[in-house]
Design a protein that fits this description.
Layout (H helix, E strand, L loop, with lengths): L4 H9 L3 H9 L2 H31 L1
Length: 59
């Protein structure tokens, strides 16, 4: 997936500060697990978008 720093910065600014504080209090292991989960979700969403575009192109 392409990395667009300006889009990620805008997204990061929308994150609830309380959520960031909660993540900061977690252990490094838990933080890595959450990061991995988010990466999996991002990849799944990307694949879903790709499949949708492919179906639309076939129509």
């Amino acid at each position: 997936m392409p990395d667009f720093p300006e889009n990620r910065l805008a997204l990061a600014e929308k994150i609830d500060p309380e959520l960031l504080q909660m993540l900061a209090r977690m252990s490094r292991r838990q933080q890595r697990q959450i990061l991995l989960l988010l990466m999996v979700v991002e990849n799944l969403l990307f694949e879903m978008m790709r499949e949708r575009r492919a179906r639309e192109d076939l129509e």
